[in-house]
Structure prediction request, 479 residues.
Amino acid sequence: MLVMKYGGTSVGDARRVRESARITLTKPGTNVMVVSACGGVTNLLLEAGNAAANGDDATRQRAVNAIHTKHANVLGGIGDETIRLQTQTAIDQLHASLDATLDDIATAQELCAKRSDFLVSHGEKSMATMMAATLRDMGEQAVAVFTDQVLATDDRHGSARPQPELTRERAAERILPHLQAGETVVCTGFIGFAPDGSTTTLGRGGSDYSATLLGAAIDADEVQIWTDVPGMLSADPRKVSTARVIPEVTYDEAQELAHFGAKVLHPRTIRPAVKAGIPVRILSTFQPTNAGTVVRPGGQSQRIKATTALKGLTMLTLDVPELEDLAGASSAVFHALHENRVEIISAQQASSRRAMTFILDTLASGCEVFVEKLRVSLGDLEADITCVDDIAVVAAVGEGAANTPGALAQLLAVLSRANVPVLNSSQQSSNAAMVVVVPGDAADSAVQVVHDGLIGSARTHRRSGGRRRDVLGETYRVG
Prediction:
């Protein structure tokens, strides 16, 4: 049994919807589809919602009309008139619900997180309805299931946290009976329900996450993420022309790549799969016969497989002269970050044990303002604070390679030879990645250098007069 997730590009119009349905029908057994909203619809829904809150009726109507046009295009691809008319009725009901929601927002003059979650859910619900109809039009038994009745979460609207045990119970009630009856189940992506029954979302990009959550809930054999790229690549192909598809990565490697900027997977996607031991495969609807990339538990390859960069970050360093003050200073930093809703990308403690370095998401207030707030949190504690804006983190990812003796030194040497300035460096606790901090304007060149030096040239040779071996991708002569 497969869970197959299709993103907005893969369901962007009638032709793409039909192609995604065709791909699903080529798979054996009875499977689950998870679909995003039609490409661009989520942004249009938010545009309409913000316009309604601001009393901008013209913009609201323009966005709603654009949504109707996109849905009409998909409906037009359904050949059977009876199925098409039945589906049109269901879509009309969803559009009526959308209008009522926008009226509520206009009355409140505010688009709060709770209303926003319900608003954007109309995109996924419409696509699930139309995808199930398309499958029936192609001769398959299919049903749409809205996951605001299945995927249990807390009440953190806009970025809800899942409740796996209750989700498993709901899936047993609302998904498994359809599968047992031989029906393909088409689920909405990224939406769930709070304890009070209201609709929640897992955050933008959370459709991948919902696919693995559902896969774990129904004990799927594999979760497939169908997108517009052929798999996980060794680098961003827009930056590195020699980037190539990686056939297989481990769970830790995938999580590090997602965490440090690779856009193929949502950073949280892998967690449910890890716990359930389910492989995740990334595939392209534009190249459906290609094998893509499979993410599964694995051994240590002793190779760097990929490099990626996360830009627009801030580096905060705290040096505490007195060791006994370190715990208090650390607590003050975390308090200030929490109060200002700043996301921590990574944190490390220097070998001296008195210095801590934090890589942070962009500080909305800027370094100077945040440092002043931090000094207030520190109170009487003495600490030297350094804050650097516009930095980037470049990760070299490969499980087993990252903790190879001399690996970090080799990475730094590759960058040094190319005159790429390095502000900081570390190994991740997973041992699946090494990380360097560079100025923001050096990120692209750093990725190119790491790829050329540690990935693009990777090979092993045997020649007379000595044995040659590669370490992290570069070739060295030994013996």
